[in-house]
Amino acid sequence: MPCSELLRWSWSRLAFGLLAFGCLPADTRPPPARAIVSVQASDSLLSGISAAETGDGWAIEYRRFLLGLGRVALEGDRCTPYSDAGYTRIFDMLLPDAQKVSEHYALGSCDFGFAVVQPSEDSLLGPGVSETDAFLMRSPSTDPAVPRRGISVYVEGRAMRGGVTQRFSWELRRRVVYRECSAILAGERISGLELASGEEQQIRIQIPGDALFQDGPDPELAQLRFDAFASADLVSGNADGEVSLAELRQVKLADLPAGAYPLRSTADPAEVPGFVSAEPTLEDYLYTSALPGVARFRDNGSCEIRVRSRFGDPPED
Questions:
Q1: SS3 (DSSP) at 63
Q2: Per-residue pLDDT tens for 257-309?
Q3: Which of 47, 148, 176, 220 is deepest in the core (most CB within 10 A)?
Q4: pLDDT tens, 80-97?
Q5: Quick one: which H or E segment has residue 22?
Q6: Exposure string (b/e) for 230-257, b if CB count within 10 Å is 16 or more?
């Protein structure tokens, strides 16, 4: 092609590109609402649980509480998301102040969901979380309950009664998906978020310190107890003062008082083969019934909950 024709062809392409760019339609949607999601520890997590608050006289306190949380989703037929912030963070939940999870822009009636998850390589680190903490949370193990998975919740603490002290250090490796969350606001149960143009909403996820030691998944009906955990070490375990997950795995729920430590219906062995033991154990209860309680939408809210492992569970919604 002669140089003169090449030059005319190049300019025509450039002019067409500029014309096409100038004809792009303007965004005529109304300004979205801004939803700021944060997470905060409860008093029972920060200050511990007194002996008077438990049904068997054990006082419980936490020394560490690392949490993987994120994948916040605003969705639904009447929801118009303007942005997606589905990343995760690692949080040190023994810090007293609220910590940012993510920001979202949307309009309408939006279902609200989030997840407690094992962090990935690109998960953000919250205040006080070190690279060593992140490496711990991402490291897979040979835990037979959830093999080759990182940690979603890492807890260290101790329980005391009389002159006896029982320590616990648990790497909890299942993930919990919370969807279609609702809460009581001004005396009325409200599902999800109602987001109007231009407004800003603060949405708080609370991390309670009592969930792991309730003897049932319903916080309104359950009592706080530690005896079954202590006995897993002192009676049927090696009595070294450390309550391990392996020791909890040896305690069959059928051997505990009738009605105590029920599994959530979604964790029924008949529904999800291989998800819990053929004879459910106290470790199964910890994973399927207690672990989902470590996060609560708007402090007093509830969500549809799915506890998931690597093997044998249904795909995510």
A1: strand
A2: 888 899 886 544 444 444 567 789 999 999 999 999 999 999 889 999 998 76
A3: 176
A4: 999 888 889 999 999 999
A5: helix 3-22
A6: bbbbbeebeeeeebbbebbbebebeebe
Domain count within the chain: 1
Nearest residue to 69 (alpha-carbon basis) of 134, 121, 38, 115: 115
Residue 45 domain-assigned?
yes
Contact 66, 89 (CB under 8 A): no
In a domain? residue 253: no
Residue 148 maps to a domain: yes
Q: How far apart are CA 44 and CA 53, in angstroms?
A: 10
Confidence of residue 310 (pLDDT cuts 50, 70, 90): very low
With residues binned 3-state (H G I as helix, E B as strand, rest as coil), the percentages for the chain, rounded to 5, are 20, 35, 40
Which neighbouring-strand residues pair with 88? 70
**237 within a domain of the structure (yes/no):** no
Kindly state the tokens that stand for 305.
């909950």
- Residues 62-71, mean pLDDT to the nearest whole number: 97
Three-class SS string for 84-138?
A: CCCCEEEEECCCCCCEEEEEEEEEEEEEEEEEECCCCCCCEECCCCCHHHHHHHH
Find out whether 136 and 154 touch, Cβ atoms under 8 Å: yes
Range of the domain at 304: 28-212+294-308
CA of 91: how far to CAs of 88, 124, 212, 254, in Å? 10, 9, 18, 36
